[in-house]
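Dear colleagues,

As part of the handover before I leave the project, I'm documenting each prediction I ran so the next person doesn't have to rerun anything. This entry is a single chain, and its sequence is reproduced below.
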Amino acid sequence: MTTNLDRASLVSRSVAIESVNLTHAEMKTGFDPFNPPEVARLTQRFRCRFELPPSRLDCLLVHINLVLEGTGAESAEQEQELVSIDATFLAVYRLEDASSYPSDALGHFAELNGTYNVWPYWREFVQTFAARAGMGGLVVPVFKPPIRPVEEPEQISPLEESALLEPENL
C-alpha cells in the first residue's frame, strides 16, 4: 500500500527550504475584553497548494493557509465565536528541475512537508495574536500529519494532472 507520505518522499529527498514568509493574516475576536470567557473548543484546518514559477525552474512554492477558531460560552445555553485567526504562509523550496516530479508527489509534499515546516511559525503567530487580543495561554498543539493511503499513479494524463493541483480541503 502506498501512502501520501511515500509519494511526498519522492520530493523531500531532493529539496532544500529557502524561506518561510507570511503573506496574509487576519484575526477577529468576539468577546467582552473585561470578562473574556474560557475557550471551550478549538478547531483548526489547513489547505495547501503549490506552484512551479516559470521564471525559476529550480523553485517550488508552497502556499499554506491555516485557520484556527475558538468558541466558548457566556452561559450554559449560549455558545459564541471568541476568536478566528487566519494566516497564509509561503514556503519557498529549492528543487532542481522541479517540473520533472509527478504532480501528485508535489501536492503530497506541499500538504505534509510544507505544513510541517510552517507549523512552528503558525504556533508562534497564534500565541502572539491571541495574547495581543487578551487571550493569553492559547497554544496550538503539535502538527500531526494526515497519513493516508493513496493510489500510486501509473500514468497521469494532462486532464487528471490539472485536477491534482486543486487545493484539498482537510
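Residues 155-170 have pLDDT under 50 and may be disordered. Helices lie at 4-12, 103-132, 158-164.

All the best with the project,
I.
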